[in-house]
Amino acid sequence: MESDQALPAGCAGDAMSGPTRSHSVAERIAQDIQAGALPPGAWLKQIDLERRYGCSRGDVRRALDELVAKRLVQHVPNRGHHVFELDPQRLAQLGQLRAILEAAAADLSYDKADAAALQRLEALAARFEAAVRDGTLLEQHAANIAFHMALLELCPNPELAAMIRETRNRVPSALLSQWPTRGWIEQSIRDHADMIAALRACDRDALRRVVVGHMREGRRPGAG
């Protein structure tokens, strides 16, 4: 095991309590699942996770328990843990749930959409467009997530926002299929601009339409 100085941020032994460390590990595993770095069906060996995230076996075990409870990971007795693999019907159901939740959040997001918030969204939309033009798939994914998390911060209902984040995390984006064609990713750029324009115009119906349309037919439910 490497010294604390060599451990990734959030995993140093003295910096956090055990439950806080394990939650941090769970968050990082969830991010890798959502990004497609740990694909559906992949087996999660504890020793590999210890090395990957620079944490103790106890932290990894508690993190896996947390992810099982969130239905991101499945435990198979006498075999271990693997990333939950959703069937097409379940994926469609989660997509429908996300559309309902995000439409509800859109209806509540106007009071906090001040000039500073709109400026931040514009900067993040520009970052995504630049990543589409010159960046890698991972950079595009990270920029897209950053835009949507900033948009979600405008929702004044923290329980609704937390439910949306949890639902998003339950569906891996699978980077290579998130935007099947160049046309899909270019439409995402336009969608981001349309969301900002609707917020600026205080056009609730337009924002709801573009948010739900962003998860339109033909996309994975985790996209957007």
UniProtKB/TrEMBL annotation:
It comes from the Bacteria. Keywords: DNA-binding, Transcription, Transcription regulation. Signal peptide: none annotated. Residues 19-86 form the HTH gntR-type domain. PROSITE patterns: HTH_GNTR. InterPro entries: GntR_C (IPR011711), TF_FadR/GntR_C (IPR008920), Tscrpt_reg_HTH_GntR (IPR000524), WH-like_DNA-bd_sf (IPR036388), WH_DNA-bd_sf (IPR036390). One of its GO terms (molecular function) is DNA-binding transcription factor activity. SUPFAM superfamilies: GntR ligand-binding domain-like, Winged helix' DNA-binding domain. Residues 1-23 are annotated as: Disordered. This is GntR family transcriptional regulator.
